[in-house]
Each structure stands twice: as structure tokens, then as C-alpha cells.
Design goal:
Elements lengths: L12 E5 L4 H12 L3 E6 L3 H11 L5 E6 L7 H13 L4 E4 L14 H25 L5 E8 L10 H21 L4 E8 L11 H10 L8 H12 L10 E3 L9
Parallel strand pairs: 1-2, 1-4, 2-3, 4-5, 5-6, 6-7
Length: 253
């Protein structure tokens, strides 16, 4: 799945939250390369959005940046209404946006903890009824980006771990309720992702790569490939699942 044109997604309309950098940008790049009309949502950095749009401009699809803070309870509804006004429907929603405040379970900052949980869960909860009407029957796909921290303990990750665990549970509930409408809901989960030398601790990265059966860290493109796979027609009977993309790291005892 190194390319995108062979996925059968050309012409479909996709919205990627947190889509202007990191994992979100890799997902947007994959879908845009497959010929999708991609909306990349972002909350803060206009410069990141401008760079993302410029980077994706030469691909097969189209890209538009939309500035909304999906942690705002009103934002998901506004995003969906805007998508309806511009394209009249939506085929793919990828919920990648996240908020992270490091903290201990014994000394949490309750306000920041709930901020992180809200960003993980609220966009899909708030958008659920609108998605039922907006997503195209038969090709409607919802994919949430989760983390191994939903099931395993990562130091300092308590707020994200709680949020991602709740997100995976929500995926299952939405899958059951949207399935009769021909819409699938799934999640992609990953562990440590190598986003480049500016964002990694080399020693930790080396140790994790050595523990990974595949012999390297996961990169954003690995996650993007899995998301795209779940968006294809061939994935129509995959429902309510969490697909782990970590090169086998999670299999180690």
C-alpha cells in the first residue's frame, strides 16, 4: 500500500481531525494521494495548516483546511454542517485529534485530565447523530486513532490512557448503532511512533526498535496505511474493531 490510487477511494470526501501535522498529516496525505477530497481540521497553528495544504496540493485529490477546536462541544456539529454545505455528504471521518498533559494517576490535574478525555471522546459523541445522516450508506467509514496506552500503562500517560480507552469503547457502541445504516466504525491503535529526530529520544527509540519483531519503530505512514485500509470497500464487513499497528511490539511479554 505504498501508493494510493489503487485503493478505490477516488472522489470520496474525507474529514481528518488534527490533520495538519504528525499522524493526522500522514493520514491526510494517504487519502489525498488516493484521490479523496480531504478536509484537514486543526485548532491552533495557521502556519502548520498552510504548510500541510501546500504539501498536499500536488496529489491526486484536493485538500482544504478548516480551523475548529474539536474540544469545543459545538465544533463537531459546525464541522459537519460545513462539510454538508460544501460537498453535500461525507464518506470518511478520521478522528485523530488529541490533547495530552503528562501527569501521574496519584497526582492528576483534574481539569487537564478531563480536557484530554473530552478531546478524545467528545467529537464523536457530539457528531454521532449528524454522522448518521451525513455519511454515505455503504461507503461511510469512521476511523478513530487510538493508542496502546488504552490497554497498557505508560508512565505519565494517565489522561490519554483513560481517553483512548473510552474512545475504543465508544467505537464499539457507534459500530453497532451505525451498522444498519451501512457505516463502519473502527479504530487503529499504535504505540511509540517515530515522527523524526526532532521528536524522539534516540536511546528509547533504539530500545523499542530492538524489541519490535519488525526491527524498527512504527512510522506515521504505517498508521496511515491501516486507516486507508479500513476506508476501502473491501473493509465493509470489519466493524467495531481495534487494529493494532506496531510491528508486533505489543506481542512481547
Amino acid at each position: 500500500m505504498s501508493g494510493g490510487a489503487e485503493l478505490g477511494l477516488a472522489g470520496r470526501v474525507a474529514l481528518v481531525t488534527g490533520g495538519t501535522r504528525g499522524l493526522g498529516l500522514a493520514i491526510a496525505r494517504k487519502l489525498c494521494g488516493a484521490g479523496c477530497h480531504v478536509y484537514v481540521n486543526y485548532a491552533h497553528s495557521d502556519s502548520d495548516a498552510e504548510r500541510a495544504v501546500a504539501e498536499l496540493a500536488g496529489l491526486k485529490g484536493t485538500v482544504t483546511a478548516l480551523k475548529f477546536d474539536v474540544g469545543d462541544p459545538e465544533a463537531p456539529g459546525r464541522l459537519l454542517r460545513l462539510a454538508r454545505a460544501r460537498r453535500r455528504h461525507l464518506d470518511i471521518l478520521v478522528h485523530n485529534a488529541a490533547s495530552y498533559h503528562p501527569m501521574s494517576a496519584l497526582r492528576p490535574d483534574i481539569g487537564e485530565l478531563w480536557d484530554d478525555v473530552r478531546v478524545a471522546v467528545s467529537p464523536l459523541v457530539q457528531a454521532a447523530s449528524g454522522l448518521a445522516e451525513l455519511l454515505t450508506r455503504g461507503t461511510g467509514r469512521v476511523v478513530a486513532v487510538s493508542s496502546s496506552g488504552a490497554r497498557s500503562v505508560v508512565p505519565g500517560y494517565v489522561s490519554q490512557g483513560i481517553g483512548k480507552a473510552a474512545l475504543e469503547s465508544l467505537v464499539r457502541y457507534l459500530a453497532v448503532e451505525l451498522a444498519p445504516r451501512g457505516v463502519t466504525v473502527n479504530a487503529v491503535s499504535t504505540g511509540k511512533v517515530d515522527k523524526g529526530p526532532d521528536t524522539r529520544d534516540d536511546r528509547t527509540a533504539r530500545l523499542l526498535a530492538e524489541r519490535t519483531p519488525g526491527g524498527r519503530l512504527t512510522v506515521p505512514e504505517d498508521v496511515a496505511n491501516a486507516v486507508a485500509l479500513l476506508c476501502t470497500d473491501e473493509a465493509a464487513w470489519i466493524q467495531g474493531q481495534v487494529l493494532t499497528v506496531d510491528g508486533g511490539l505489543g506481542l512481547r511479554a
